[in-house]
Amino acid sequence: MKRSSKAFTTAVFAVYMILLVWLVMFKLETDISLLSRYRRVLLIPFCRPGSSSLRFEAGEMLLNLFAFMPLGYWLAMLDFPKKPWARTLAAFCLSLLLETLQYLFFLGTSDVTDLILNTLGAVLGGLAFKGAKRLMGERAEKVSNAAGLCVMLFLTAAWAFLNLMN
Questions:
Q1: Which helix H or strand E contains 92, and what residues bound it?
Q2: 119 contacts 88 by C-beta, under 8 angstroms
């Protein structure tokens, strides 16, 4: 990867990381006083309190997968860390850190299901980059950077619009 391309990729990745932390920790809320101030730990995967059986919440599960896919994608694109298993471990550790911080700061539920799905999302993102690289070769990085920038701009504009409307 060229130096200028790597710098751009790193910048887009940094913006994504800010958005990811904001999403996980603060649920995209701008007024922190509106956040629920409770904490809870769910240690049984795919099970909610009061439920004696596994209960799947597809929307939340998909959000966890999709929110962490870019992490795996960009880590693979930046080739950091070098080994795929180390990227998986990095995604797991980041997810564990965010879940722990949620608990420590009374920002909601720390959930083993989230930890599993966040890590899986990052793995799928890494595989998606591998597939993109196989299909597009060296152009995969340029296309990915352009797509990442467009998505970030769209999400920022949508968030600004929604906040202005409220």
A1: helix 84-104
A2: yes
Average pLDDT of span 128-145: 93
- Say which residues have a Cβ less than 8 Å from residue 127's Cβ, sequence separation at least 6: 72
Place of tokens 């539920």: 109
Q: Which is more confident, 121 or 109?
A: 121
Q: In the beta sheet, which residues pair with residue 109? A: 40
**Separation of alpha carbons 109 and 90, rounded Å:** 22
Ramachandran region, residue 133 (left: φ > 0; alpha: ψ -120 to 50; beta: rest): alpha
Interior/surface letters 5-36, b for 16+ CB within 10 angstroms, e for the rest: eeebbeebbeebeebbeeebbbeeeeeeeeee
Full-model pTM = 0.85
Q: How many percent of the chain have pLDDT more than 70?
A: 88
Q: Which two tokens stand for residue 83?
A: 């080994």
User: Angle, nearest 10°, between helix axes 112-136 and 84-104?
Assistant: 150
Q: Round to whole Å and give the CA distance between 125 and 82.
A: 15
State the residue for tokens 């209960």: 55
Give the start-to-end residue ranges of the domains of the chain. Answer: 3-28+36-165
